[in-house]
UniProtKB/TrEMBL annotation:
Pfam families noted in UniProt: OMPdecase
Provenance organism: Spirosoma sordidisoli
Protein name as catalogued: Orotidine 5'-phosphate decarboxylase
Enzyme Commission designation: 4.1.1.23
Gene: pyrF
GO-annotated biological processes: 'de novo' pyrimidine nucleobase biosynthetic process; 'de novo' UMP biosynthetic process
Keywords, alphabetical: Decarboxylase, Lyase, Pyrimidine biosynthesis
Pathway terms, separated by semicolons: Pyrimidine metabolism; UMP biosynthesis via de novo pathway; UMP from orotate: step 2/2
Catalytic activity: orotidine 5'-phosphate + H(+) = UMP + CO2
HAMAP family recorded: OMPdecase_type2 (MF_01215)
């Protein structure tokens, strides 16, 4: 999906909601456990309940890898089920020396070589340009670099001062010399909304993937106020608050209600910046 198409989806749906598919077998409603593939059955119901409200889906790969080969099968079926007008994110946080990154890129971007067909992947920037560019070799695919993450440990390295800048700012500035905002996004935690003004100065056009509303307590209002651009410019992720709104047979209906509430707030913020 291109920058323009993503921006159009946001305008059409009046939403910048990304539903995180952090599907944990231990948290699935009991009635699904007799399904041949409970993880896929759950994801399919969540996607059916939210596809008109979400512009993106983000399976966190750890939840699938932890299930072994069955997990990869559930992931492939889930990815195939996501509607074409939704942006897909492999939240895999990869990155290694160039030849290894090339294989990670193939695994997530290249169905012709037995890989998956995600639009984008999250990448840790720590190993530098040659660990990231192999992902950019795939025309039309996106890299989402970890910049300022939502967790308390983000202070350990990302907030370290490098003279005039902090490390996360250097990540954004340097990565923006590798490719344009049509290929690179940054992860900025919703719990870091206070830094969004500075981040927007360095990355005025890049989309930001913002996890941390809902279960981690980040504020959608603050993120929207400082992060929205006229192109949209945000993908705000919620995983547990949507997926596990109910553990019963009404889980999909309750998930939808959570997504509706986020989408309605997003529509208000989008209207305010027009
Ligand atoms: O800084 C980051 C980067 C990634 N994540 C991931 O996003 C979701 C958040 O899930 P919630 O249940 O909505 O808290 C999860 O997959 C994380 O691994 C993040 O939270 N923060």
């Amino acid at each position: 999906m291109t920058y323009q198409e993503l921006s159009e989806q946001i305008a059409q749906k009046q939403s910048y909601l990304c539903v995180g598919l952090d599907t944990d077998l231990k948290k699935l409603p009991h009635h699904l456990l007799t399904e041949p593939d409970p993880v896929f059955a759950f994801n399919r119901a969540i996607i059916d309940a939210t596809a008109d409200l979400a512009v993106a889906y983000k399976p966190n790969i750890a939840f699938y890898e932890a299930q072994g080969p069955r997990g990869w099968e559930s992931l492939q079926k889930t990815l195939d089920y996501i509607p074409a007008n939704c942006f897909t994110i492999a939240d895999a946080k990869r990155g290694d020396i160039g030849n290894t990154s090339g294989l990670y890129a193939r695994a997530f971007f290249d169905p012709a070589a037995a890989g998956l067909h995600f639009d984008s992947i999250t990448v840790a920037p720590y190993m530098g340009h040659d660990s990231v560019t192999p992902f950019l070799d795939y025309e039309g695919k996106w890299v989402i670099l970890l910049a300022l993450t939502s967790n308390p440990g983000s202070a350990d390295f990302q907030r370290q001062s490098l003279g005039e800048q902090e490390l996360f700012e250097a990540v954004i500035e340097t990565a923006n010399s590798w490719a344009g905002p049509d290929r690179i996004m940054f992860v900025v935690g919703a719990t870091q909304a206070a830094e969004l003004g500075r981040i927007r100065q360095l990355a005025p056009k890049n989309f930001l993937l913002v996890p941390g509303v809902g279960a981690q307590g980040g504020s959608l209002e603050d993120v929207s106020r400082y992060g929205l651009t006229t192109d949209g410019g945000l993908l705000v992720n919620a995983s547990r608050s949507i997926l596990y709104a109910s553990g019963g047979t009404d889980f999909a209906r309750r998930a939808r209600a959570e997504a509706v509430s986020l989408q309605q707030e997003m529509a208000r913020h989008l209207q305010a910046i027009r």
